[in-house]
Amino acid sequence: MKHLSQYFDRESQVILMQAVLEVVSLAPLFTPTMPRTGKPFSVRMTNCGSLGWVSDKTAGYRYQAAHPETGEAWPAIPQILLELWSKMSGYPGPPEACLINVYGPDAKMGLHRDEDENDFSAPVISVSLGDTARFRIGGPKRKDPTRSLDLVSGDVLLLDGESRLAYHGIDRIKPGTSDLPRGILDEAARINLTLRRVTLP
Ligand code: MD6
Ligand code: FE
What we know:
Blueprint: E1 2-4, H1 10-26, E2 44-49, E3 52-54, E4 62-64, H2 79-88, E5 97-103, E6 109-112, E7 124-130, E8 133-137, E9 147-151, E10 156-159, E11 168-173, E12 190-196
Antiparallel strand pairs: 1-10, 2-5, 3-4, 5-12, 6-11, 7-10, 7-12, 8-9, 8-11
N-[(3-hydroxypyridin-2-yl)carbonyl]glycine is lined by residues 101, 109, 114, 124, 126, 133, 135, 151, 157, 159, 168, 170, 192, 194.
């Protein structure tokens, strides 16, 4: 795992937030639900890229080319994120999916692995914006010991190699820890962007 503390400066964070707002205006946030139980996530989501990650009660976790509510194609991945991927990924092809997770002050994300992709040789790269989050990461088994770190606005996290399939999650948000303007997303305490390659090149 690579944790690049404050990789994006304030100016770049503002550019990223504006890009997120533009994506959200074209591809509205939706609330995914858990496979089988239909329990709603506490995080709201949208995507950009040729594929987007979605989940619902009947069809479960998957990638698809269309927004689950509007049926429209996802907007393009912003240039600044394509540049991050080409600098950091070491992967011979562009990312296909950028999942946008929007956390309110009480939202969390349970321990999970990013394992819905067909190509695990590509890293998963994330960018955090807004309030600080307590991130937990363990090993390849759910019961492996974990350690925690804070993800601060502007941080980049890269999971590759052994960490690519490690269990991880967000225990809690620390509300009010960032003054980054959220624009129309005024209820958004924190936003996390994850860039992923889904299919083999
Ligand atoms: C989050 N992040 O930071 C949740 N997954 O809100 C993730 O689930 C994640 O940050 C894979 C790689 C990097 C991540
Ligand atoms: Fe993840």
